[in-house]
Amino acid sequence: MRAKFVLNPxxxxxxxxxxxxxxxxxxxxxxxxxxxxILTEQRxxxxxxxxxxxxxxxxLVVAIGGDGTVKEVASGLVHTGVALGIIPTGSGNGLARDxxxxxxxxxACRALLRGSRREVDTGVINGKYFFSTAGLxxxxxxxxxxxxxxxxxxxxxxxxxxxxxKEYFLYQPELLQVRIDRDNIRVSPLLITIANCxxxxxxxxxxxxxxxxxxxxxLCILRNLSLLQALIKLPKLFTGKIDSIxxxxxxxxxxxxxIREKPGPIHMDGDPFIEAPQLKVSILxxxxxxxxxxx
Length: 295
Hints:
Blueprint: E1 2-7, H1 17-27, E2 34-39, H2 45-55, E3 60-65, H3 67-75, E4 83-88, H4 94-98, H5 105-113, E5 116-125, E6 128-130, E7 133-137, H6 138-147, H7 157-168, E8 176-180, E9 183-187, E10 191-195, E11 217-222, H8 227-233, E12 248-253, E13 255-259, E14 264-268, E15 271-275, E16 278-292
Parallel strand pairs: 1-2, 1-3, 3-4
Antiparallel strand pairs: 5-6, 5-16, 7-10, 7-14, 8-9, 8-13, 10-11, 11-12, 13-16, 14-15
Helix pairs in contact: 1-5, 2-3, 6-7
């Protein structure tokens, strides 16, 4: 197997990059593996490294990093037939979890040894790819605020939770027009998630019915909740039953269009940014090959 490993040296690394490289060479030694390792140097670099690997004839490109690194590398492999492997080192790891890839370095390396090729779907919003989840509303708003804190501020779950509770009392849901089949509905939800996989990451399953290779996206519209309702209902995110609460409208779609009054935040695979008012959403069935443990 001729493989290129694309390593993000800062994504959730609990070990120095050179120790990760040493572990890879130890776990994957043998005549069946011929691989190189290259480090990303800046945001977006993984996409170009993946494209270069395709041109150079590699059979497998393995992303070592968090959801952002995986998204970059996967985006460079769509419609190429070259397989994506994942060694997850981030905090969410949504796609890796859905593919049942172990979350520790040794386990993920050993999963590569017994992996196989599998075709999965790719989500698209305004021409940009996503692979696990995307969405808009309160979670995108919080994600953008969290990222704007800067790298020197404290990171992790507690600051994110603090921002979420504080903003919950201030957030005003925007009016959206959502096309579902031939109908247009007008809603002001807490959030909308468009899911290719079951979960955001971290075990939070926003779309329990989602399948990564069914040719459909799961559209989850979570209507407004009081803080008390949220504290009672949202733990169902971690039990796979969030779709059972009365405030959740759940659809399975191949495409949709969401229109709002002005540009605003969205998130794609955990990456929040400002996007245009009109969101054109579609799916590319079985457009990405992944290298993962058998189902």
